[in-house]
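Hey,

The postdoc asked me to send both predictions to you directly instead of through the lab channel. I've kept everything plain text so nothing gets mangled by the mail client. Protein one:
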Amino acid sequence: MFIFFPQPFFHFFRFIMASNQQASGVSPKKTGPAAFFRRLFGLIRGRKGDNETYTKGPIAGTMLRTALVMLPGTLTISGYNLVDAYFVGRLDGDAPMAAIGLTAPLVMICGCFFHGLSAGVMTTTAQSLGGKRRWRAEQLVSTGLFLITLVSLSFAIIGPLVTRAVYRNVMHASPEATRLATAYMDIWFWACVSSALGMSGNNLLVTANDSKMASATMVLGLASNAFLDPVYMFQKEVCGIPLGFGLGVVGAAWATVTAQVIGTTPVLCILWKKHHLIRFRAIRFAKLASLWKRIVSFAIPACLGSLMLPIGQFIMTWITSHFGDVVIGAITAAQRVQVIAFFFPMSLGVSLMPMIGQNYGARLYSRINGCRRFAMRFAFFYLMTMSVIFFLFAPQIADKFLADPDKVEMRAVMTFALRILPWGFAFLEVHRYSGFFFTGCGRPLAAAMLNVMRILGFLVPLSLLVLLFFRLTGNEDTALTLLLSTQMGSDVLAGTIAMILARRLTRRFPADGLSETFSGKRRMFD
């Protein structure tokens, strides 16, 4: 299997094996295939007590080490979209890129349900591990993944029907872009269970302080997607023999779902065999309902908060569709390129939720406050630097990702977007981190309200006013400038407010070891 890995990814896996030789019992001097697989077995088997790092290790050091390990894996969080955008941008015409833009809101809506359920499982598991209740963590993981599977299968049945209704009656894109987007979503829905389980499984690996294997399996999925995209999308003849399937946008869907299956399978095996967090045991319905109720108590607010993102994206796509396929494609490309700036802050945030949850379960409130100070300061200064870089090199980035010589106008719009939107990056990430603190500390509804404030309080009303201005005046250039400025300004306002509220939350905790109470009730996991 490893023979077909691109060389950099093979060396990444070898680095992971070498860094875990103590766990596998293999001498550093031993090399060769046999030693390699013994190290792999030892890595999967793992060591006991790893999860205590979040509650005992140095805050900055633990977060930075986890971020560095997860950096290759974090690439995959948005890497699928980035790879798709890169290859779809090389297809003829504007319709393929516009079709990918049309799929984004629906994929995000489904992903929000999966994210909410994953957050419910991850948060309750982290608090149980922090409170030394491993038996409860095993039950929560096993029943939580079963619940996620059932929800995914229901989406596979309902999703294709919803897709056709939405694209036919709501969107204003061209018929060709709509046809391609519908074909893409039909394939994606039937395989969404792999995406859901992969997302949840990797979050649980990080919660168990196994970020190296989480990163490795995520890289495996992205490497598979990067290899399969050109195979499925294009077709070339070599010595008279056709190579590739030439499916275009539909090929991007097949490549994505195949890669997700490849990346998800080892994740579930590691949770089962190494960490023993998946148990195949009969359980009474009353106990199952009790565990699901606990997970859903976190999942519903997390879903609500997460749903604000695709709702906002859907409305913004609908507003942008009034400007035509060129603007849709340009802004879609800009948004997918911008994720490059968030790779390292997102890696830092991967460890943030389990670290908060475990310290909250262990009643180590001072560590939670320390996490907030370090994480938010780092994200703010890092992303402000990235904003300057995007502003300066916007034309070169647009030329790279929209290489077709005929897409002159689309490149101009993308360049313009890359010089406005990045100034809200730092505030957007601070806003996201603030939600982690509220969720990890047992206040998921407050975290959801932060997203409601940003989307329904600022972004949507102001953007609708811009659309009204465009319809009344017909001035496309001014309206587009206002639309991009509105999105950036909404991020700044929401991030500032969220930062103040998170600081207020963490500074009001009692001394370490004491039982926190709020609203006259005991903590959820006491």
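Protein two:
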Amino acid sequence: MSYLVFARKWRPMTFSEVVAQEHITVTLQNAISSGRIGHAYLFSGPRGVGKTTTARILAKGLNCEKGPTPEPCLECSACLQIAAGSHMDVLEIDGASNRGIDEIRDLREKARYAAAAGGYKVYIIDEVHMLTKEAFNALLKTLEEPPEKVIFIFATTEPRKVPATILSRCQRCDFRKIPFRTMADYISTEASREGITVTRDALGLVCRASGGSMRDALSLMDQLVSFAGDRITVDTVSGLLGLVETDLLAGVASAVLSSDAPTALDLLEEASRRGYGVEEFTEAFLGFLRNMMLAAAGAEKGISDLSESEMETVRACVAGVPDIAVLNVLRIVAGASAQIREGADPGITIEGALLTAARLSSVFELDNLPRVKVDIPAPAVSPPERPSPKAAPAVSPPERPSPEAAPAIPPPERPSPKAAPAVSPPERLSPEAAPAVPPPERPSPKAAPGDSGPDPDPPVAGEPREKGPSPEPPPPARGDGDAVRKKENEDIREIAGLFDLIPEPGGEGVRGEP
């Protein structure tokens, strides 16, 4: 039998063996147990985290001879055929090479036929985002209302490229990156079964290089076993993968933070002699500074890719160093890395960055800053402000005498209608008997002696008084009230008699004559 790589040999066979994806495996197991199996699933997530593996396990659980069951037996012919990829009713399709509308039409026609073994027909389409727009549209109707016991499982690393019409017809399951410690435990367990010894620090380097992908980590393990045999150490991993040693990174960081620029530059040259490129060293140094910043800030929970020995090295580097100092160095080195990517000379750029960081790494607190005495000059005396026109006091006119102080007698009050005596209508007179009497003139009131009244328009101080007609004095008092009312009644009678002498319109008679 040909050699089987670790990525296939150590592949999980049941839901319980899937690593760090419990939120998905438990959901699928409960769906099978309760009979609530969806007709379409979308498995999305980074590469090498178990999307296709989980799809195969779901197909085993549905077509197992003891199923549908959340725990396939792995012994029946259906489970063995699905594991070998030869089951007639479980079809794995590569979306990149079968992306056209013709392939989807053929799939749609075959999906109408029942499963050959009487179980479920499962279509696993990997990298489904590579299908064309026309292919997705041809799949819509079948995906919405598939035939009985037909299940579609789509796997993709880029779910944003899948049309919304497809996403709305699927149950989406988002796979996560595998934590480094969980990955290290899994690899250590599987390696011990194979008789392979791997140190904990070496496992940390392998998991860090994999970037959270189990398949990448297992591929690296294959490579390391071929390189070093059954015993894998940190030196083996560093030599094969070209990783910068932690001790070298810690030496450069300590020299920069202690303002020892010559030592930092010498260690940079040592890294070059060991065969590390400038770009490679810069990226590794940035990652080490990031871990130092989190450790200095007391946020060690964010550091998950380091072994215990590497974590102790980081703690020793930041002992007594404020986090702002590490942050300043990180910013300078990050700027140098950006300049290198833009085409600047790598060697000169990183050397200048380390020298700048060594000179600027000292950070003073406000309490430690030197106190400077500043003489504050006395404020100059400003000239007095001129009063604004609004603020100038206005010359007020002389006050008018109040009614109590004025000698003028107020006019009498008019009698109320209730107090006025009833006036009988005057007798109508004939034109011959009624002499024409002009309306009487009202007697002009006599001014009270020595009463000139208040000046209605008093002159302003400083201005000459204009000459002109003197204002009329206020009317004097009318005398006794009964006499006045009697005179008014007589006037009313005379005026009413004049109206009776006016001839009627259209006739010659006088109004009021028979």
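Summary for protein two, as requested: The chain is about 45% helix and 5% strand.

Thanks,
C.
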